Amino acid sequence: LPDEALALASPRNEWTVAMIVAHIVDAAAWYASLLDGSVCPPDVAVPTTSADIAAIAEACAAADARLRAVASLPDGMVEKDPGRYNKRSTILSQSIHHATEHRAQVAGALSTNGINVIDLDALDVWAYGEAEGLGA
Question: pLDDT value at position 124?
Answer without folding.
Answer: 76
